Amino acid sequence: MVFSSLEFIYLFLPPVLLGYLFLRHLGWENGIIWWLTIASLAFYGWWTPIYLPLLLGSVVINYGFHRVLLKFRDKGILIAGIVFNLALIAVFKYADFFIGNVNLLAGADLPMLRLVLPLAISFFTFQQISFLIDTYKGEIETSDFSRYILFVVFFPQLIAGPIVMQKETIPQFRLPVFQSRLALNLSIGATLFAIGLFKKIVLADGIAPYANQVFTLAEAGTGVPFEAAWIGALAYTFQLYFDFSGYCDMALGLARMFGIRLPMNFNSPYKAKNISDFWRRWHITLSHFLRDYLYIPLGGNRTGPARRYANLMITMLLGGLWHGASWTFVFWGGLHGAYLGINHAWSALCERGYVPALLPRPVAELLARAITLLAVIVAWVFFRAESFAGATNILVGMTGLSTVFEPKAWEALEAAGTSVWALFMIMAAIVFLLPNSIEFTERYNPVLGLKAMIARRKEEGFLPLRWRPSPAWAAAVVMIGAVSMLQLYRLADMTEFIYFNF
Fold first, then answer.
1. Which of 31, 236, 269, 322 is spaced 20 to 30 A from 416 at the CA atom?
2. Are 268 and 403 members of one domain?
3. Of 180, 215, 236, at which residue does a domain stop?
4. 121-137 and 75-89 are packed helices; what angle lies between their axes, rounded to 10 degrees?
5. Which residue range forms the structural domain that includes residue 191?
6. How many domains does the chain have?
7. SS3 state at 459
């Protein structure tokens, strides 16, 4: 089920909230936990019920590993648990990818499995791997099954994150949390949900057709004109931003309606001052997972510069592969690995005084942000393209060196050029001038890990626009929600969130 669907908004969310409020009134802690668990399983099973046993089997088996690790703390048991989880992803997500490459390299004709990718498999397996590792390290003394299963399947974060750690959510599954500040929780939750719905339905889905048109024609082998190539790249850059940002806002808002605060997962990444800063702002929980459970175990930066760069590259290549079973995703991860290596090398040269300061600091910072954003846009082309040929056509077009063989194919896009650039200007103003949703509601502690974000915001000096529970803001949020709902009714087809595919 998709947060931005009519089924979710009309048929799912109201009865789940009513049941929660009734159990909250009774003061029945376990009742609330199991009600949210059952609702989350219904939410997951709405798409394809056949994969519910897979999800539940994964939960039961991982909880079994957890119980055994609590008793024995044996590294072999931990490895077995990790192998089990990675095997699930390997079979359902990567089997055909590996079979296809074996067929290509060996000239074989092995049959494809053609398994339908279960929703959220990358997310719930990563969460459970982290849970097993934390158990092995002794960071978890015990956890009852009811809280564990809700930790894994809690519907606001089940399908596309954030990737939550046990220490962040399980301690919140308590009656005092469920019963705290109901009016404020519902107000903040509804506000974040409405903003996220607007970002998804109006902004992301509104700009998506331009990206789809350019990338589809590029895949067909036609040369891409200069303006069309930039329209396609920028349209996807904004589409992905508002799609993922909108999902994160809606997930945070839904969780907050039940009194639960999730970790921050998105923090204005296009404002990043360098590529390291970008990864501290984009899909924050995935970055933390890759850092804590892959980069640091590989040796991190403790084994010398050469090993550090190798560890960065390995981490980002696997991060790219996590996003999808395609070499374009792997290449996207490799690009970011190279970006991070260059960034660290440049920082080391600057710290040692080998790079003189030729520009005033404000100009240098602006240039650094522009270069970072350009690097991200170039990488997004590979992230979106279905093949290297399609990505190359877009990038060559962006340089102005493309030869256009079928000019008629681009006539409709060229005719809409002025309106598209106007949309880009509006979206750029939202991205770079307005506070993001977390900053907008920061007075009321909308997420976990807020202090670091506030410190960064104060350094950067964003506009002083802040939400508060007042009639004026309530009217504004209702208007945003109404516009989103009207647009939702107008859509011919419901569109999933992009990260649902990962």
1. 269
2. yes
3. 180
4. 180
5. 185-291+369-501
6. 2
7. helix
Distance CA 422, CA 419 (A): 5
Same structural domain, 81 and 110? yes
Q: Give φ, ψ of 263 to 5 degrees.
A: -70, 155
Among residues 283, 288, 323, 336, the one annotated as catalytic is: 323
Asked, for residue 360, whether it belongs to a domain, the answer is no
Per-residue pLDDT of the chain in tens (502 residues, 90 and over written 9): 889 999 999 999 999 999 999 999 999 999 999 999 999 999 999 877 888 999 999 999 999 999 999 998 899 999 999 999 999 999 999 999 999 999 988 888 889 988 888 888 999 999 999 999 999 999 887 779 999 999 999 999 998 889 999 898 999 999 999 999 999 999 999 999 999 999 999 999 999 999 999 999 999 887 899 999 999 999 999 999 999 999 999 999 999 999 999 999 999 999 999 999 999 999 999 999 999 999 999 998 888 888 999 999 999 999 999 998 899 999 999 999 999 999 999 998 888 888 777 788 889 899 999 999 999 999 999 999 999 999 999 999 999 888 877 777 788 887 877 899 999 999 999 999 988 999 899 889 899 877 666 655 555 545 567 888 889 999 999 999 999 999 988 876 667 888 887 7
- Tell whether 473 and 456 lie within a shared domain: yes
Q: Which two tokens stand for residue 13?
A: 């969310």
Same domain (yes/no): 221, 274: yes
- Among the candidates 114, 145, 180, a domain finishes at 180
As a residue count, the chain comes to 502
Active site includes 323?
yes
The pTM of this model reads 0.94
Question: How far apart are the C-alpha atoms of 425 and 210, rounded to whole Å?
Answer: 15
Q: Are the CB atoms for 115 and 96 separated by under 8 Å?
A: yes
For residue 209, give Cα distances in angstroms to 231, 265, 469: 11, 26, 36
